[in-house]
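A student in our group prepared the protein record below, which I am reviewing. I have pasted the whole thing underneath without changing anything:
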Amino acid sequence: YDSAAKTYDVTLTQSSRNSSDLPFHIPFALGLLNAQGQEMALYLAGKKQSGTTCVLELTQAQQTFRFTQVKQRPTPSLLRNFSAPIVLDYTYSDSELVQLLKHDRDPFNRWEAGQRLCMQRLMALVAQAQAGEPLTLDELFIDALRSTLLDETLAPGLREQVLSLPSESVMAEHSAVIDPHAIHQARQFMRGALAQSLKAALITTYEANLTTGKYQADAQSAGKRALKNLCLSYLLEWDDESTLQLALAQENEANNMTDRQAALAVLVQRDPDTSALQRFYADFSDEPLVVDKWFSIRASARSNDVQAIRRLMSHPAFTLNNPNRARSLIFSFCNANPAQFHAADGSGYAFWAEQVIALNKINPQVTARLVRSLDHWKKYQPALRKQMQAALQRVAQEKNLAKDVREIVQKSLG
């Protein structure tokens, strides 16, 4: 930004793993926000005013575009509406991300700003956990999420997306060396801290998004249910009788599967043996797809370890011969319950190897997908990496592995 000339230059550089592909023709949409969060009129040099969003045509390896009549340093809103399928490499400051999260009219960039803020703090919390330091969360971040949560000008569905934290698997993708226990500790701390700081706002938003009357499948109602259920999941991070009763009431009174499953899922996280499980199963034991969901909810409960999963495998409704049932329990545990699957004693990996060997005799295609649970074993911390390698080697030693299964295992070990 040149304050004297009132110009703002945007330089775009494109790169690709295969440089022979370059340059691509990339439509790059952007907007500029002033200090008050208002969109600025855009004047691209040599062209007439282009409204508040301008699509730049990047056709060279590097190009600079100049905007004129820019009266103050702006906050750039880049790649609006995800105008091109690219990875954007730009280092936003915290203040810029907060500005975008609070004020950007572009829904994609508002969500992206929230995710970047979350990820930055989550990875900082991971580092604190690994160093044995106290975990902390700054008020700037909490206030930005509070503003979004209470902003009724935003669609409920968008608010739900912004307030949904990156998953532990996404956090793992951002780690040079994956430490699943530090990742879990960091994410749970953030959920608890947000639940504590935003409790009043969460209750207000929950109540404001109740969908009374006959079930409706329109987008607005679906968004309200999603936001309400997200608020409920945060509120259950509180060890509080009133929030527990809120979830029990929703599970008992819901007139649609979305709300009932959401309430059951948060209750199971609070108490893996909640009486709501038996009530839910009794009501839907004749509905195979719902029973699949029941197993999946139990498998992903963060307090359910390998022994709990083994007990569930003895349930009358469970069988490895049913691919959906196998996915609902075994896949959910291995892929959606990282804190327990990556237990320090290696019990999760031993369980995985047993199930791969057993499923290989029944359904090799399903087995090949389960093998993928250890695809990235070389990125994990040394102690876990050694145990994962041993589990893969155990599977590789089986004589009658299906061709696809053996190929994946050998490629992973290689």
Observations:
- The mean pLDDT is 95.
- The first strand starts at residue 8 and ends at 13.
- Residues 319-414 form one domain.
